[in-house]
Amino acid sequence: DKGTWGRNNGRFGNKHAVLLEIPGAPLQSIGQLQHASLNPSPYYPALSIGQSFRSPYLQGANQVVDSFADNRYESGQGFVFYDQNYLLNEALWDGYFFSTIAPKPDDASYVATSPFAVQDPFTTDLPAVVDALIAGDSALANSRMSLLPSDEDTAVVRNELLDPMTSAKHLGVKGAFNINSTSVRAWQVFLAGYRDLAIQYFDATSTSLNSDNNLPGPAFLRHSMPAGGSGASGSGLDEDETWRGFMRLTDDELRGFAEAIVAQNKARAAARGTNGAPRPAMGLREFINRMPGEVGFDQSGTLQAAIEASGLNAVRATTSSEFATATYNSNASDYRDTDFSLNAASVAPLSLNQGDVLQAVGAAISARSDTFRIRAYGEANDGFGQTSRSWCEAVVQRSSELIDPTRSERRFKLVSFRWLSPDEV
To answer: Are 44 and 84 within 8 A, CB to CB?
Structure first.
């Protein structure tokens, strides 16, 4: 007979619980790396990149590194513990991205019947993808990733696109969403981009491939191929769909989530600021990570805090699924933070957590806007009481081109310019 997992690993557990996945296609977002098992130690979380839950092995919420004078299992052996979630987010977000210049599913890299027959994607498949992008024949897997105009020779652009160290120079994200937005409507529309999608899933019980289009709300998937259909946020912790399905949000839930994100953005900006002036998140890492040392913001990142505030997982987050170091008596000495608590229901596939949201939108967000509309006004008096007034508007965009190779400033390019009529001001 099968073993059980999920809410219980005994007779009350679930026979089909899917928590992690191995990617079946090239990644498009750093958020998809949440499934990467980067540390074999049982002291570190399985879901890490993009997550912001703090660790019970740190002495307090204001720390990201802690040390033990003695290892519980080996006396006299010291042990240094890191907040893996925090440090991985700090290292990866803002510094790396997926261009999605990668072999396509029908390329030889995937369809070869023998591993020895697989062609080298760097000499066959990738050049074909780049050539099609330059010619405008097809888009990249991330359709928002666009080729930027360039005055350089096509051969130079092609070679630089194939080079992972220079490809970013020629790529831009079309319509990237600014995570510092304080518009509830903007967040609502952005997150609704996954609305009404029919999701294919593999039914773990009947072993058949099915399509889920039961609910109209946006779907946030933990897995690219779920093992069950969608469930409402009211599904309990003991239901099978909780451990193998995925969540769709209703319109009311989506709005509540958007409102909670805006509230978190405003509150955290105020906490970062000085002299009463709020400061937005300067990078994705600041938005994603918790804020050590800032009481009220040191438990989780912006999105996770908004999820908890909006109560999306409240039905499953019961006292029976609560983990608290204070009540975990048998191994209490392992945990430096005796006040730590976390609800295990937060990581059930049907529950929404920050990593799931970033897996969906991580390739389409930015901490700043690179396109600006500038308006100017001028007037002249001829000395005889006649005044002329003019208004103009320019749209400028920050490019990847350096003004001076020895400095980090980027050149702004003029996208458009026009004169305005008084009615437009």
So the answer is: yes
Which H or E element spans position 416? strand 410-420
pLDDT value of position 149:
87
Cα dihedral sign, 286-288-292-295? positive
Token couple for 281: 């998140």
Residues 245, 382 share a domain: no
Q: Residue 72's domain spans which residues?
A: 1-98+175-369
User: Each residue of 124-149: pLDDT tens digit?
Assistant: 688 999 999 999 998 999 999 999 98
Q: Give the Cα-Cα-Cα angle 4, 57, 336 (nearest 5 degrees).
A: 120
Using DSSP's 3-state secondary structure scheme, residue 320 falls into helix
Q: Are residues 92 and 158 in the same domain?
A: no
Whether 255 contacts 184, CB under 8 Å: yes
At which of 129, 144, 174 does a domain end? 174
Residue 209 lies in a domain: yes
Does a structural domain hold residue 103? no
Element (H, E) at 375: strand 371-381
Given the structure tokens 């040191």, which residue do they identify? Answer: 298
Asked whether 140 and 173 are in contact (CB, 8 A), the reply is no
Domain count, the chain: 3
Note whether 154 and 57 are same-domain residues.
Answer: no
∠ CA 10-15-20 to the nearest 5 degrees? Answer: 105
The tokens for 304 are: 């996770």
Tell me the pLDDT tens digit for each residue of 143-190: 999 999 888 999 999 999 999 999 999 999 998 999 999 999 999 999
**Whether the Cβ atoms of residue 120 and residue 107 lie closer than 8 Å to each other:** no
In a domain, 329, yes or no: yes
Buried b (16+ CB within 10 A) or exposed e, 298-317: ebbbbbbbbbbebebbebbb
End-to-end CA distance of the chain: 73
Alpha carbons 238 and 261: distance in angstroms, whole number: 29
Is the pLDDT score of 257 beyond 90?
yes
